[in-house]
Amino acid sequence: MILQFILLIMLAYAVGFIYYGLYRNITARIQGRYGPTIYQTFYDSIKLFSKKESVSYGWMFYLGPIIMATGAVLTLIMIPLFSDGEYLKSVTSNTNLFVLLYIMVLGPLGNALAVGTGGNPFGVMGVTRGLTRLMGLELPFYIAIIALILANGSSSISDIMQAQATDGWNAINHPFLFIAAMISMVGFMGASPFDIPGAPQEVYSGPATEFSGKFLALLMSQNSIFSFAKLVLIVDLFLGGADNLVMLVLKTLAIFISIIFIGVVYGRYKVDQAVDFLMKIPTLIGLIGLVRIIWFG
Amino acid sequence: MNSVFLLINLFPILFLYQYSGHIDMSLVLTNEFTLTLRQTPLGTFFAYLSLISIFLVTIAQSTKKLKCSYFLLQILLSFAMFVIVFAGDFITLFIGWEIMTWSSYFLISKSNNTNAKTMQKYILFSLASAFFLIAGMVIAYAYAGSFDFEKISTSFHTIPFDIQVTLLVLFTLSFFIKTGVIGLHYWVVDTYSKAPDLFSAILSAVMSKMGIYGLFLIYGEIIGYHQLKTMFGTILNGSHFGYALAFIGVLTSIIATFKAITQDEIKRLLAYSSIAQLGYIVAAIGLGTVYGVSGALYYTLLHTIIKLLLFINVAAIIAQTGKSRFSELGGLIYRTPVSFVMLLVGIIGLAGFPPLGGFASKFMVYNAFIDTKFAILLIGMLFSGAASFLYCYKLVYGIYLGHPNSEGLENQKEVPISYLIPQVILVLLLVAIGAFPGVFISVINPILKEFLMTPLHVESIGIMPSFIGDFNGLFIMSAFATIFVLILILVVTLKSKMVKNVDRFDISYCGETPNEKTPLHYGYGMGTEIHRIAVVGAVLKRSSSHFYEFLATQTKRTSELFSRMYYGNIHNTAIIILLFFSALFFIGVK
């Protein structure tokens, strides 16, 4: 059990970093650069873990990244990895989509406290914009998830995943919901045009501004774990889950690369434009899918 | 003398201990009118809520130098609420309602901040509430022949349909005013923010719950949810009436959440947040399913705990610093660390995050929405929940984080212990409910039986039951704690020296060095950018005050018109009197 946990976290950590390396590489190639090696992010993280942090603003400042990492790991262990349901069954059987929705926001909000303690106005600006963006970002995602819960009569991810083995993928059965959820996912993964909270040109790097040393490394690591968890969630909900590791990696990679492609070609929205867009088009698409399920499902 | 009155305020909680068994009293006035007090599970639940809350607030009041009359009015208020929740007929209920209105009116006037306008608003809306109530009860008496709840309940189906609807609307309006549903919330914000700081806690946590009790009384006990469903027909898996009520509730919560985000004054933010949370409860009451009713009750409990905690916390900070705005506060975290932790737990509960009790209540309500298939309303509710993270963060950042934004904050000390004791109790309650969400189901089940519904089944106290997948509070809490501790150990053991705390101006700031005069606190600006979002901005521009001002000017003009008839010209007056009597005469002849 404990070994499984450690393996799971290591896997997510490794895959997440490789994906992030891929992201930097692909973005560079599209922009006509060579870009760093795929392992560059991993090296950075290892280096930062051994470095001394340069500033501190008291205990709350230290707790933030730890809460954020806790939120990421908790999200990871609550999402079933494979569709047979054997792996880490004791944990994932408790998974409820409503709980998961809140757990996913728990980490960033914990970190927001540390950012506030740091006293850098740019960090707080990033957090505030992030929370404002969340208003728009969650809306299509909620619609997709509620519709799936209604369609399956269960809020357990395993149930929704297993139902797809017989009925076919949700992405094909409910394309509107898939599109709405994917647009939200672009934002959740921190890709353009919704990469507002950490925008380097506007608010420094937003929430990460004041952190250094092992806390910055912790933030980077949790980001890769968290990204992997979110990709697995989408695969579980819409692409029928995966039987083995190869399928899981292929499916998550497909989603990830499509998100990169969207992110690369778009500029960044202002926060009000982003929320405005999200509250209109993806929400409308999602609502069509929802109405289809309630009245014609 | 003061301490004597203070002790008397602590006394009502013993009353409950004394009467935990059974209350059944009646005072016969005439053959037709009897004042009755009877104990129901619902009433007991609300009585416990209000009396325990008043007990906790009184502890916080113990170091404040308050006048005897303040405590006297407060004890009168507890008495009034006691009468309301145990009333067995409308007359008793109305007596309690009036005592509550007047005692709270004078309590609000004890504050230094209130002005005549606030008081007028409060009393006008309270009177309107009372008038709706009295109109309803008189109509009910005319048709059912009694003021007694049970008699009205048994003969309700014999009343003609249009009268039934009239009764429903009158009672609903009366209690909606107390809960502050959007449109009728005009008095809430001003009153909560101008009332004495600790009395705001009672206003928000307890008195608004009397409106919730009233709604339960009308829908659950007197009319009955099954009857409501047959009266109005069904839509999806709920009733039309439920849909309307849930719609009003969700709309209330969304608009109030937007308004809360843009507030600068702490207590105004909390007031709007209170309106939003009560919107959830109203929505859940409207659904009228097993999960709806239990969700509403659960939410009532949690909202009472959380709002008491937050208002007491904020009252302590205001008393300590003398500042009540986000733009004047900030950076108190290391000066008042205990208060900070208390508020932190409070906002985690308010935002409804899983390890704490706040989530259990939201989860129940979400289940109710899934049960009735009101998906779009559920999404609206989830949306307002997501938007509420913003004002939760503003609350904690504006007061405790960031930089001190006015003089004297640098040398603040921890707030008095009398404020901290009730907060600690409430925080422990919140954590306990988060870990064992099933405990409270045993309190809800008798109430469900009272409403003729099937009680919920609980496997273990750590689990919140649900038909679409349980919520295991104990598991989430232990998993969170374990992972947190593991990562903490990892971070601590990693080889690196902890750096000394640096000066608060030692931040990366565009290559410049900020100083005392640099505006570094983001407390006021936070959340104001939602004005720029087209949809939200359009909502925020509208205000119910425009409507009420319009109503006031129109009423004034109409009364001016009437007064001209009487005082303008003697001939006109004579003609009008003549016309009036001739009209009467013709009606009489017919």
Key words describing this protein structure:
heterodimer; A: 297 residues; mainly alpha; B: 590 residues; 3 domains; two-stranded antiparallel sheet
Question: Would you kindly provide a written description of the structure presented here, covering whatever features stand out?
Answer:
The complex is a heterodimer of chains A (297) and B (590). Chain A has helices at residues 2-30, 40-49, 59-78, 89-92, 97-118, 121-152, 157-167, 170-173, 175-188, 200-203, 213-238, 245-265, 271-296. Chain A is built from 13 helices and no strands. In chain A, 75% of the residues lie in helices and 0% in strands. By secondary structure, chain A is mainly α. The mean pLDDT of chain A is 87. Chain B is mainly α and 590 residues long. Chain B contains 23 helices and six strands. Chains A and B meet through helix 3, helix 5, helix 6, helix 11 and helix 13 of A and helix 15, helix 16, helix 17, strand 6 and helix 20 of B.
Short structural description:
The complex is a heterodimer of chains A (297) and B (590). Helices cover 75% and strands 0% of the residues of chain A.
Write the layout of secondary structure elements.
The complex is a heterodimer of chains A (297) and B (590).
Chain A (H helix, E strand, L loop, with lengths): L1 H29 L9 H10 L9 H20 L10 H4 L4 H22 L2 H32 L4 H11 L2 H4 L1 H14 L11 H4 L9 H26 L6 H21 L5 H26 L1
Helix pairs in contact in A: 1-11, 1-12, 2-11, 3-5, 3-11, 5-6, 6-9, 6-13, 7-11, 9-11, 9-13, 11-12
Chain B lengths: L1 H9 L1 H7 L5 E5 L5 E5 L2 H21 L6 H19 L3 H19 L7 H29 L4 H6 L6 H19 L6 H9 L2 H27 L1 H8 L1 E2 L2 E2 H22 L4 H22 L2 H32 L15 H15 L5 H16 L2 H26 L16 H19 L5 H10 L12 E2 L6 E2 H21 L40 H8 L2 H24 L2 H20 L1
Helix pairs in contact in B: 1-4, 3-4, 3-10, 3-14, 3-18, 4-5, 5-6, 6-8, 6-9, 8-10, 9-10, 9-13, 10-11, 10-13, 10-14, 12-13, 12-17, 13-14, 13-16, 13-17, 14-15, 14-16, 14-18, 14-19, 15-17, 15-18, 16-17, 16-18
